[in-house]
Amino acid sequence: MATTGVGFRWLDLLEKEFDKACVGLDTSLADLETEEPEAVFSARQKIATLSSCFAQLTHKALTIFQHSAKLEVS
């Protein structure tokens, strides 16, 4: 169970760091929005794509960790 627990903790930490980075990037973009609205819009679209990919990846990793936990219990 130790390996699976590490996986769940790792995933939780990774999600928190990703969220902090996205918020920081969005805050930085807000400062530039008045000067370069088209560039900021494009950057926000790319952040949305990255976030979507990250969400899918973490969902798949969570599924694998849950499956591993069930196998370790068996």
TrEMBL record:
It comes from the Eukaryota. InterPro entries: GOPC (IPR038879). GO terms for molecular function: transmembrane transporter binding. Signal peptide: none annotated. GO terms for cellular component: Golgi apparatus; membrane; trans-Golgi network transport vesicle. GO terms for biological process: negative regulation of protein localization to cell surface. This is Golgi-associated PDZ and coiled-coil motif-containing protein. It comes from Pieris macdunnoughi.
